[in-house]
């Protein structure tokens, strides 16, 4: 069983001067594919990429509540795939929600930083 | 490519499937290989491809030397849940091109000793590190299908009901039973909306096939076509849920290789139903049923034994069990037995053409680590 050692593979985020959290990723120079990671090439077409920021706003594409034990995460916890506006689909935790209720699909959401464990987090805004 | 030849499945074999922590990979593998050799009528092989995901390094040589298989090319492949069928298509290609004469494809996995519960998500993967366990990944697809009205909770549960009922007639299956839709939905929630009975179990097992050049004998089971693909990016641009497109693309390749018009030409199918939503999405991606009709087909008996397109007569991964690396070859074994008319109460009458689909995932951003689609035919 692997333990979380080495470089953190999760998206890097930072706070803008306006106080918004954004994912620091890449955008493909050829096909404009947004990527949530600082990868050297575009995963869609292999072309060169340039730094790009995504977020903080997006829309919930789907969601679930995980109710089984997963190392490093205490169940139940709420997860959502969020399509960031003009950006990539990212997996994020939705803290503070009633864990018996998955985040409504189609909701608007906003990045709110990372958890103590370094997981990307969003809150539902509408 | 050099020579082009038709390849036969000369023999198949499997272990029992289930939690077998007191056994080891060596004895599980021997159960499968011994039966496959006996079925093929020969113990001679010129090369071996072994599919496994979580077995320790060196497992192929370790289990094979215990049965006297040494000194020949032995290759281990890993393609998540499609590892067993990856071994099969590589073995097929080796025989088809004349690189080797007789090739053994072996899949094996012992999950019960590797994990205390579900598979631990891979922490070097961004979404694995974030806590996206496999049931949660499929739950995202199921939730999306429910949201768009492409499936109902009862239709999801119907897949579990069907496959557990099929497994009643499979003595090697891990689980079986006559459940109701209500029982499936009332079982413990794992990752909303998927309940326990909608998730494959933790399984140990092995399965094997011997591939040889076809002889042309009557009743011989041959590989009519096979294809393997790895996934492309799955993201906000994707029109479908995770995994759909890699299955659809690989199916198109396999049907072209088999010179068939449609997956519905197959009389019987074994497909990847690690979770109920998986079978529904797969039957749609195969083109077996129209888009959005997978749930209705399961609930209406279309994909049940006796229906127009029987899917997973073995009980599938949900009921036979899902020892990852073994699964693809367990599917190949089931279809081979079906095409020989040897499946007893779960036999699809008169089956001559069968299709196997396996897909594996876990690498985030991709539509799947790999998908394999194979068409077998009884000549």
UniProtKB/TrEMBL annotation, chain A:
Residues 55-103 form the ChsH2 C-terminal OB-fold domain. InterPro entries: ChsH2_C, NA-bd_OB-fold, Thioester_dehydratase-like. It comes from the Bacteria. This is OB-fold domain-containing protein. It comes from Actinomycetospora lemnae. The lineage of its organism: Bacteria, Bacillati, Actinomycetota, Actinomycetes, Pseudonocardiales.
UniProtKB/TrEMBL annotation, chain B:
Residues 24-213 form the Thiolase N-terminal domain. Gene3D superfamilies: 3.40.47.10. It holds the Pfam family Thiolase_C_1. Its EC number is 2.3.1.176. The keyword Nucleotidyltransferase does not apply. This is propanoyl-CoA C-acyltransferase. It comes from the Bacteria. Residues 246-364 form the Thiolase C-terminal domain. Keywords: Lipid transport, Lipid-binding, Transferase, Transport. InterPro entries: Thiolase (IPR002155), Thiolase-like (IPR016039), Thiolase_C_2 (IPR055140), Thiolase_CS (IPR020613), Thiolase_N (IPR020616). The keyword Metal-binding does not apply.
